[in-house]
Design brief:
CATH topology: Trna Endonuclease, Chain: A, domain 1
Helix content: 10-25%
Number of helices: 3
């Protein structure tokens, strides 16, 4: 593909943004994409009603996720980890999207459907100790933390009450 401008990591990021945007849109929320990732945040999701809750997300994607166990492991770089565990008014979540190993299976398009495979999982690192390792730390995300419309609505309710 000589005319390709995007690396696979760029495509992974774009697919994770599309996934989050689709889920948030179906939940009725607004998505704001950050122009510059200077604070470890890629996307903010905003809700209406009382208190106008928000959730900040750092997006990652990987083809190396095995979700057959009760948790999935993801190595989080030290900078990202430490930006996610600080106390902030708006909750910060790590969102890791699982993609198929075969790049051609990441997205399927036909005249009646658009399929982005597979799904994403979220994790709050708020209150976790700072990363002592020089490079980063492995995060264990429960597979019950799948990011979908219902879980996003629950996260917004928890953001509204300050319990995320």
């Amino acid at each position: 593909m000589p005319d390709t401008l995007l690396a696979d990591t760029d495509i992974e990021e774009a697919l994770s943004q599309a996934y989050v945007t689709a889920v948030a849109s179906m939940a009725g929320y607004v998505v704001a994409h950050k122009n510059f990732d200077r604070d470890g945040i890629d996307i903010t999701i905003e809700a209406g009603d009382s208190f106008r809750p928000k959730i900040d997300l750092q997006l990652k994607a990987s083809i190396n996720i095995d979700d057959s166990a009760e948790t999935i492991s993801y190595f989080c770089r030290k900078r990202n980890y430490n930006l996610l565990n600080i106390a902030t008014q708006t909750p910060r979540l790590l969102l890791v999207m699982k993609l198929p190993k075969n790049r051609e299976d990441w997205i399927n398009l036909s005249s009646d459907q658009l399929v982005i495979r597979h799904c994403a999982y979220w994790m709050s690192l708020r209150g976790y100790p700072d990363c002592e390792n020089a490079t980063g730390q492995t995060i264990y995300i429960p597979t019950t933390n799948r990011f979908h419309i219902q879980s996003l609505r629950l996260l917004m309710d928890r953001s509204r009450s300050g319990t995320v």
